[in-house]
Amino acid sequence: MASPDYILETDGLVKEFKGFVAVNGVSLKVARGHIHALIGPNGAGKTTCFNLLTKFLEPTRGTIRFNGHDITADKPAQIARRGVVRSFQISAVFPHLTVLENVRIALQRQLGTSFHFWRSGRTLDVLNERARELLAQVGLEAAANALTIELPYGSKRALEIATTLALEPELMLLDEPTQGMGHEDVDRVMQLIKQVSANRTILMVEHNMKVVAGISDRITVLARGAVLAEGDYEEVSANPLVIEAYMGTESAELAGAH
After folding, report:
1. Is pTM, for the whole model, over 0.85?
2. Which of the residues 46, 91, 95, 208 could staple to 149 if both were Cys, CB 3.0 to 4.6 A apart?
3. What are the pLDDT digits (tens) for 11-25?
4. Which helix (H) or strand (E) holds 252?
5. CB 52 within 8 Å of CB 28
6. CATH number of the structural domain 1-83+170-258
7. Rounded distance, CA 61 to CA 54, Å?
8. Where in the chain are the domains?
9. Both ends of the chain: CA-CA distance in Å?
10. Where do the H-state alpha helices sit in the chain?
């Protein structure tokens, strides 16, 4: 029986692609209310792991439990309905709609009118107040009427977090939330993740060690598809196996992120 302290648990998760083992016996325990980071060198299996958790890939072996329920056989839409929502590595917003319209489309799910694009826009006006609240949460209220394509990169990622929040996730999976950002945007998105983590759990794949060190409660390190180490930042960054796996520049980054 799953522990109530853990919102997500995997047991012996394996994914093989024609003989290549991309994920090899990964057992994860994500504590409720925590920010849990999944890190590792390129090719460690982090994104494959995310794809297994959201059922974009079927595991070869192993089990996944969410809130104590075995969800290993669930389809992606069922996983999302349970409250596991993933924000993608590449900004997944509609560039030629306004910022407000993007959040409204995400909110339509709550009305059960998703994809009814032929409906009058007025039927969505009821969602404006909630959409503006979500934009305020991510500091974009002043940009509500701007075209999304005109937003700077960091603001696009903030909008993506707002659209993810619109789906009322209990567990948010963030895939490289600060990828490709300058220092200013990284700091802003770090604060944003910390802020939106109130009353929910976040599991994130992240390369930026400053972000990992700054906001993670717990860290799991993957290497060659398997769990190499787990713990808080102090434990993980001092682990000789982790330092070896991050050889060279990345290991210097690992040490310097305090």
Report:
1. yes
2. 95
3. 999 999 998 999 999
4. helix 249-255
5. no
6. 3.40.50.300
7. 15
8. 1-83+170-258, 91-168
9. 37
10. 46-53, 76-82, 99-111, 128-137, 153-166, 183-196, 209-215, 233-238, 240-245, 249-255
